[in-house]
Amino acid sequence: MRIVFKEDSQTFHLYNDQISYIMTVLRDGQMGQLYFGKRIRDREDFSWLLESLPRPMSSCTFEDNKAFSLDHLKQEYPSYGTGDYRMPAVEVLQENGSRISRFVYRGHRILEGKPKLEGLPATYTEDDGEAQTLVLTLEDEVTHLVAELSYTLFAKGAVLARSVRFLNGGGEVLHLTTAMSLCLDLPDHNWDFVQFSGAWARERHLKVRRLEEGIQSVGSRRGHSSHEHNPFVILKRPGADEFQGEAVGLAFVYSGNFLAQAEVGSHGTTRVLMGIHPDSFDWKLEPGETFQTPEAVLAYTDRGLNALSQTFHSLFRKRLARGYWRDRERPILINNWEATYMDFDEEKILGIARKAKECGVELFVLDDGWFGERCCEHAGLGDWTANRDRLPDGIEGLSRRIGEMGMKFGLWFEPEMVNRDSDLFRAHPDWILHVPGRPSAHGRFQYVLDFSRKEVVDCIYGMMEKILSEAEISYIKWDMNRSITECYSPALPADRQGEVFHRYILGVYDLYERLTEKFPHILFESCASGGARFDPGMLYYAPQAWTSDDTDAAERLKIQHGTSYCYPVSSMGSHVSTSPNHQTGRATPLHTRANAAYFGTFGYELDLNTLTEEEQAQVKEQIRFMKAYRRLFQFGTFYRLESPFAGNVTGWMVVSEDRREAVAGWFRMLAGPNQPYTRMRLAGLDPDLVYNVTVRRVTERPFGQFGGDELMYAGLVTSDATSGEVPGGEGLLDFESRLFLLKAEE
Ligand code: DGJ
């Protein structure tokens, strides 16, 4: 890994053994982008990569030159108003009303390791040798606004982390109205734009469209990253697939409003921008004040999308997630939400917990309904003390009893919200985000606390800290069940209202930081009505997230498949729930529900007492199995083999680091008569090893012995599962699935 600066050609080359990133200082002093992609050999001068021809109608910078036009030059951090008509990375409103700026190169530093981003989640290093960081200092000549562009190059992995820090070095008050974390000008537009979109209960579905001239983008203006679009996109070559081809992935380490955009210009280049959504963003910078953008992570592959995902998985699992649970196998939990909703008392809860313990579950999680006057969605949020009618000895008593059973105890909170019918709201009606004199919209009958105010965050911290200190709590599910409306803070002046969305998220991060610091052994699972805040920012505080409220196994295949493009298996909360499923009404076999949930953190979301004895025995066996295999599932290398977005079959696989062990999952949606022969080609194995393969449905049986080469190149035969002739008629069942367990011969 090296970051080099060539004085003569004014060129920066950042490279490791996989990628190169090259920039240069342009003739006008601004930074130009020359190359991002597969590693190329270093040389003194890469100026041939700076394409610039005279173009009719272009605005030109120099009187003696018709070719130098910002309209079509590839730039590193383009600003508004001096001849580049594409969307800028930065726009600054000045005291005279002008929004025009021009950031020129002033100097740079190269640091070992990676500096922290104050108050924001970000990737990190544990040792300075793991990365180098280039900080480019740019300055707007007129206002003296300084922009420090940071580029961290990791020694391992085809990945770069970027962010920008602004410092108002001049004497006037400025307003940043656009401050993107990353701009990447690519030389052509032969790309597919891949996004992960949907809605509640169908998050992160894979969508692919061809880039065309003009702007294509996804984003959120809801105050959280959203069910609708994920702050992760891929540009892939049209021919690229899971196993071959070129792609660039961009992930935004942030949990609020975002924009991920690709703009194809009229001369065929593509500008990619990623950052805080500029709509309703306006950050005031007094002289001497600074603003730090969140981080964006940029990865590259020329070996297909599985390789790109593995780069993100490895970085996010090891150098974005933090703390005690980062590398630990996650406890198998039971959550009472779908078993009881808010209709429970202590006896009912203990009954569910007892049966779960008998089956081998390790952690009991008490969901919504335990606090204040929380009888229904209309009341209680904000009052984080136990409801004594339901829990006579409080959380302290319940957690002790669960502990005595030999299980850990976890608790649900929704810290950012309040109901009107709550003591907190009665005491502080002005603590919600609202515009005085205007009505406020509700979402699920709740209102959003103004987390841009420190006293609000302090108060919620105080209540949570008390419970966590008094009771025996090992896990927190942190929920967030509505989007923001009336984003206005009466505590801020008029000219700072454009800061509220971002200040709100900073308040959320602050609360997370304080709680994770004070209670380092608590496992946090983030959640937002399922997966509305499943983003890289959250992973920094909570190493796992509730993937979706949709627990239907068939739907989960799509949701977890889409999620896997960016996020590691160890981050995906996935549970077995009852059948027929509460979200879809669909009935699926118990083993298929478990087979889908193993590719995640694994747990149950039902009352096991309601199962037959035979089913309970199956659950015990599932838990035994997961305990034996969870390290492999959660920390192995994950491959997508077959896509639920492409056909009737889904294939997933995890492989151990030494490639001696693997599990492949095969899932078939609908059965059909007299089906064609089918095979599933495995991946990631050692072609020279011989593997003993066992097939697991409800129970396990030997399947055969095969070479790694046979399994990868010829494929595993799955046809017997599609025939109605096999014993038990399994081949004719809808939503059938199997796991293939592979162990290398000694
Ligand atoms: C939404 C979550 O996604 C569910 O799992 C559950 O915790 C409910 N909220 C509780 O209100």
Automatic annotation (TrEMBL):
Pfam families in the cross-refs: Glyco_hydro_36C, Glyco_hydro_36N, Melibiase
Enzymatic reactions: Hydrolysis of terminal, non-reducing alpha-D-galactose residues in alpha-D-galactosides, including galactose oligosaccharides, galactomannans and galactolipids
Record-listed substrate binding positions: W200, D367, D368, R444, K477, W478, D479, M480, N481, C527, D549
Top-level taxon of the source organism: Bacteria
Keyword annotations: Glycosidase, Hydrolase
Uppermost EC category: hydrolase
GO-annotated biological processes: carbohydrate catabolic process
Annotated Glycosyl hydrolase family 36 N-terminal domain residues: 29-286
Active-site residues annotated for this sequence: D479, D549
Family under the similarity heading: Belongs to the glycosyl hydrolase.
UniProt-recorded name of the protein: Alpha-galactosidase
